[in-house]
Design a protein that fits this description.
- It is a single chain.
- The protein is mainly α.
- It has one domain.
- The chain has 7 helices and no strands.
- Helix 5 packs antiparallel against helix 7.
- The longest helix has 21 residues.
- The radius of gyration is 20 Å and the shape is elongated.
Amino acid sequence: MKNKKIILWIVLLIAVLIQFFRPARNISSSAQPYDITTAYNTSAEVKNILSRACNDCHSNNTVYPWYAEIQPVAWWMNKHVKDGKHDLNFNEFTNNPISRQYKKLGESAEMVNEGEMPLSSYTIIHANARLTAPEKKLLIDWCEGIRSKMKEKYPADSFVVKKRKA
């Protein structure tokens, strides 16, 4: 019985101590000159969808829920945000080559169409991030519309993704 109490106290102490080790927040108050909406026509409806269903993980500004104050949940969320921004950051979008922009818009449309985005683990808690069929269509059409305009504006070889040197 004494060993169980010691183990319980150690676990409790660790749970309290990890609360002091917090990841940096993904919050930027500066202007976003490379934001996708600065270069591509984006309706208010699409901006609303991006804001509530995409930007927490795919922008430089995350709106943190109350449970993000609890470790290890904050670490888990931080990893999701970092991974999301690495894959696609709408605030840094136009800072990428046209080939990457074109590719990411296609991938985005495909992932929304297949129900891979937004992540189901996100929409379980954030029900407002769930997309209706008309919202999915609107987002997919927006992505495809931008891709079409890119095809009109740039030569075909602009869309070839260059291999990165190892």
